[in-house]
Design brief:
This protein is an alpha/beta fold. It has 3 domains: 2-41, no CATH class; 55-152 and 244-264, Ribose 5-phosphate Isomerase B, Chain: A, CATH 3.40.1400; 160-242. The chain has 10 helices and 6 strands. It has helices spanning 36-41, 62-71, 94-101, 118-124, 127-133, 161-174, 198-207, 220-232, 236-242, 244-264, and strands at residues 15-19, 23-27, 55-59, 84-87, 109-114, 138-142. The chain has a 4-stranded parallel beta sheet, with helices on both faces. A two-stranded antiparallel sheet has the order 1-2. Helix 2 (62-71) links the parallel strand 3 and strand 4 (84-87). The protein is globular. 32% of the residues are buried.
């Protein structure tokens, strides 16, 4: 039952698969397959939930969905917990998601969260996106609303690079026993500021340890999970500093939420 799964403790979920050919297999880390196996077996592939809310936070993927579920548990964002987080399964699917939720179909309200990159710029030009996002009950926020500039950034760039690299190394070391890498993994050493988006540099580092012709890639939502687990163990002052940019984005979401809440209630 997906409603009984503990979002903050994915390690507690165990997937048991039984087949005529292979017998019974126990997978203690189904999330390493980008959660798709787990989501399919739980019957929650359609946005992970049929409980679409009056106000929906439309995000690009599982990374943002997982992170916002965790961030909204902080006391100052508890009033956002009931808002449905709608995973569009890719930035290119956001126009269809908003068209489905918006005035042409369900007539619901929402907030779209976009990276600050060329892919997001392309999405903003799509007719289905433009026609719905201009409505009074829809808001658009991109990562750079936190920084006030026009640099290229993705969701991962909201967090201190030192912290994100630590989470990335923890994630990669957790894969060592799973035969993901073709040679021994070596931690990424942060010696200077990484050009944004940080995920591009770490993806190249990750792929350098893969077997030839491997199609594996970083499971970004699992890196974020490691990051937020690290943050949970920090003293409050240090935790708030590490999440300061993420909190600024949540503040913007809260402002947009209040702005469009009146339309959802009508």
């Amino acid at each position: 039952n997906p409603f009984l799964a503990v979002r903050n403790c994915i390690d507690s979920l165990i997937f048991v698969n039984k087949s005529a050919n292979d017998g019974t297999k126990i997978n203690k880390k189904p999330f390493l397959n980008k959660y798709q196996l787990l989501r399919r077996e739980l019957g929650i592939m359609l946005n992970d939930s049929f409980l679409i809310g009056d106000i929906n936070l439309v995000v690009e993927g599982n990374t943002e969905k997982l992170a916002f579920h965790r961030l909204f548990q902080f006391e100052k964002y508890r009033d956002l917990e009931w808002m449905n987080i709608y995973n569009a399964d890719g930035v290119n699917n956001i126009p269809q998601a908003i068209n489905y939720l918006g005035k042409n179909n369900l007539k619901l309200s929402g907030i779209a969260i976009l990276d600050s990159d060329s892919e997001a710029d392309d999405v903003k030009k799509v007719k289905a996106y433009k026609n719905n996002i201009k409505e009074n009950n829809w808001e658009e926020l991109e990562i750079n609303v936190v920084f006030g500039d026009k640099k290229t950034r993705t969701f991962e760039d909201l967090f201190p690079q030192e912290l994100y690299v630590k989470a990335y190394n923890n994630y990669c070391n957790s894969l060592k026993s799973l035969e993901v890498f073709g040679k021994e993994f070596v931690n990424y050493e942060l010696t200077k500021e990484i050009e944004m988006p940080i995920i591009n540099t770490l993806s190249a580092h990750f792929k350098s340890f893969l077997p030839e012709n491997s199609k594996s890639s970083i499971t970004k939502q699992d890196v974020i999970r490691h990051l937020l687990d690290i943050v949970d163990e920090m003293p409050e002052k240090e935790r708030n500093s590490s999440l300061s940019n993420a909190f600024k984005l949540c503040d913007k979401i809260k402002t947009s939420f209040i702005k469009i809440e009146k339309y959802a209630n009508n």
